[in-house]
Amino acid sequence: MRYLLLVFLIITTQIEAQNNDQKQINEIYNTALTNGSGYAWLNYLSNQIGGRLSGSLQAQKAVDYTKKILDSMGLDRVWLQPVRVPKWVRGTPEFAYIESDPGLTNNVPICALGGSVATPLGGIKAGVVEVQGIEGLKVLGKEKIQGKIVFFNKAMDPTNIDTYMSYSGSVDQRYAGAIEAAKYGAVGVIVRSLNLRLDDFPHTGAMSYGDTPMESRIPAAAISTNGAELLGATLKLNPDINFFFRQNCKMLPDVDSYNVIGEIKGSTYPNEILVVGGHLDSWDLGDGSHDDGAGCVQSMEVLRLLKATGYKPKRTIRVVLFMNEENGLRGGTEYAEQASKNNEKHIFALESDAGGFTPRGFSFDCNQANFKQIESWKSLFEPYLVHLFVKGGSGADIGPLKNDNIVLAGLRPDSQRYFDHHHSANDTFAHVNKRELELGAASMASLIYLFDQYGIK
Ligand SMILES: [Zn+2]
């Protein structure tokens, strides 16, 4: 009899907890959809400040603006965490053309890849060799590449439903193309933009020279997908055409910048920290609305939603707007270093850095026991169609926090349109849908709420 009573009590407590969770999550979604703040914040970040390349005036303005918003939210603590960041500047607009016969030219849209060196002042004109990815260099060999511009034309694979997989499959030519091509004596590289559709936007992104000595570094630029198609077709007709490009980007010395941080202190376990964040820097061609203005305002909105619904966290909940994800990851690295130096105990970190599109679920970087616990929450997200819970990556900025005692997670929005915008002039506020952005913030707040309630195993 006593045993039965105990079972009965356990079951009723569980049902009660489940009901409370449902109620709290419902309130979070209702508040986000009727009284959200994230969209207005994003409007300001995008349209009043604009692209926020690390070390730029706009990046500093974004630090000041988001700190001001956090200051106004009645949090327990708001502060700036200093971090030195690289400062790369694009200079004047790049220019390029295909010369199919002497004097017969077609202009094509290009942009310098982030971190690239400039061309000589008057530009570079040379013959072109096309390869499908880095592996293609070996096939051609030094003899055919020496003195030429290498055109990396490996397209993103359209058959993956998860477009990030296609991005991962092609991004090496952008990141390391210049290192590898220089080894074969190339004078420059032109990389097909990482975009699944055909259009006229060149997409920038980080590239590296590794330990290539300064004098052997060759300029690297991205070409729009339409431009890449034209260049590829022209080369098929006549492999002896020339390509011209000019860019005057430059790497300047590091400058001071900041991560922007705010927190609500936990009432029961103040030493257990939950982080939610995105990255405040962006590329400079668009206004960085999807990448990653959306993730920043959603993360700020998480704390606001919890407060607005009257929720008092047991654990400390911290929003972190990381600086310099795009071309250095210095903010994420510094945050993790300070956390370990101060012996802070982080149990959960969630990043939104995959665009402000309709949320589908989350991916989790954690052990099996933790994942089992997380899966038991899935049904709470079903009414909102946000119940794709998978094991996988989380986010670049929270990556450095990884250890055996933390669960890392990433918001997984629908990815079909992300690469239409990513790192290009087409990443603007007009392409963010208010409801989709709000649903993402509500989903993140709900997950943070559950981790706050139950901790980790
Ligand atoms: Zn990003």
UniProtKB/TrEMBL annotation:
UniProt entry keywords in alphabetical sequence: Aminopeptidase, Carboxypeptidase, Endoplasmic reticulum, Glycoprotein, Golgi apparatus, Hydrolase, Lysosome, Metal-binding, Metalloprotease, Protease, Secreted, Signal, Zinc, Zymogen
Listed Pfam families: Peptidase_M28
Principal subcellular localisation of the protein: endoplasmic reticulum
GO BP field: proteolysis
Cited InterPro entries: CPQ, Peptidase_M28
Compartmental location: Endoplasmic reticulum; Golgi apparatus; Lysosome; Secreted
An example Gene Ontology CC term for this record: lysosome
GO function terms (MF aspect): aminopeptidase activity; carboxypeptidase activity; metal ion binding; metallodipeptidase activity
Superkingdom: Bacteria
Span of domain Peptidase M28: 259-439
Keyword field contains Methyltransferase: no
Subunit-level organization: Homodimer. The monomeric form is inactive while the homodimer is active.
Full protein name: Carboxypeptidase Q
Organism: Arenibacter algicola
